[in-house]
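Pasting as-is:
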Amino acid sequence: MKEKLSVTLDPSLVKFLDRLPGASRSAKLERVLHHFKAVKADLALRKALAAAHEGESDRAEREAWVRTMEHDQWNESAAETSGSSSS
């Protein structure tokens, strides 16, 4: 069930609304609001996906650094651990 609504708009918005295709101002305004709602949801989804992607990227970089550091720690050459030899 739809609810009745009374709105007061800037004249330029009324002209914009009147130029849109549709049977009535109510139908036009409802379509505009549905579109706005969909765009807002799309932006929220894009923001969430960007945050998730950024988190994965940061995590992958951190894990790569940990692997590199662990590899270097356990694979030091004999010269690095025993010092230089002067025979």
